[in-house]
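Prompt: Have a read of the protein record below and flag anything odd:
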Amino acid sequence: MNLPPAAIGAAVAEIETPALVIDLDAFERNIAKMAEFARTAGVRVRPHAKTHKCAAIARRQILAGAVGLCVQKVGEAEALVRGGVTDVLVSNEVVGERKLRRLAGLAREAKVALCFDAPEQVDAAARVAKEEGVELGALVEIEVGMERCGIAPGRDAAALARRIADAPNLKFRGLQAYHGRAQHLPTYQERAQAIAYAIDAVNETLAAFAADKLSCEIIGGAGTGTFTFEAASGVYNELQVGSYVFMDTDYARIGGKNGGRYTEFEHSLFVLSSVISVPAADRAIVDAGLKSYSAEKGPPWVHGRDGIEVVGVSDEHGKLKVAAEAAPPRIGEQVWLIPGHCDPTVNLHEWYVGVRNGRVEALWPIEARGASI
């Protein structure tokens, strides 16, 4: 890894840019708010680490009450277990002998589970787990409107669950029912309708499980855009929320319950940049471009500066448009950018710089950065 862009105790003005910065006060409030919501609703939180990819953050979520973490990749699971996380769910299908053996190796140190939507996946995982002498937890993933992975709900899902329950060295633990497409639907009503469909699919599947005397320890899903619906369903018991710790502009655009913008959580993640050129009165250039933030959800928003917006991005540069009435930025001035999509933005950095009261308080490595396998 490269050296961090700052030292503990340094002033924010001393942070080398571009840097991935966490406002620790907002970050901690976000974690506490989700934890309190879950306690009040009577559900568990299993946050998704694909957002932050960081064991230090995972440990803080667990201290706040999370039962474990979700990941999407075996490499992410490895990074978290090495960092002290003892309960990990790969909320995805894992295919390939080497990946399954890596996952089985983790099961000697932690409780590990993964998802299935086909019989051949079950057979392969059971064989590897038996050969490695470990037990792997297993969830059936059903299609709930995402149109990605997932077996059909109901009888087909129950047949797969029975295959898991009868397989050696696999423990059937429940149901994966995540509706990712619902998270960013523009209105509260659209999201509610989408999750109502998912709940129907879960109930159909649970009825089929009951007919075969199969019980579910975990009924997991939900995301930052819909978690209130799943929690109120009386069906879901684990929330796999991820982006709530940071937020991004994509979530800031969706509608809230009363018609305004979604404001459940605060922006706590920023790409700190510096102005490196002011070639015209209405234009300035910062040192953070596509290698510092994801732009597939649009350019980042400028935080705390009215009349300035990012209007163009390239590999190493961001172009700012400065309105006539705005205070013009100066060369060397720091500009705080809110990324459009936090997950892939995080994947571009090696360190979080946690700041509070104008000083650097924490430096956390992003251990699972680049963990794509």
